[in-house]
Amino acid sequence: MRKYLFNPGVLSSVASGIGVAKATTKGPRDWRLALLWVSWGIGVALAIGAVNQRDEGTRQQELERELEKAAKKRR
What we know:
Low-confidence stretches: none
Largest sheet: none
Structural class: mainly alpha
Distance between the termini: 40 Å
Strand content: under 5%
Shape: rod-shaped
Number of helices: 3
Helix content: over 70%
Order of helices and strands: HHH
Number of strands: 0
């Protein structure tokens, strides 16, 4: 959970929700408002996906290092 809370991409995408909320209260309610919320949701999803992808890459590298260590011990 910490990896999401302190990630700058996630923070900025969630913070942009403030502007979307203000536009919702002040602006007209039409198709553009729905499009605004959809685009905000996509941005948050992409930011979270980027954090997941980075974490998976790190885990993969750690696993490969452990396998190399184990292979060297067997020799």
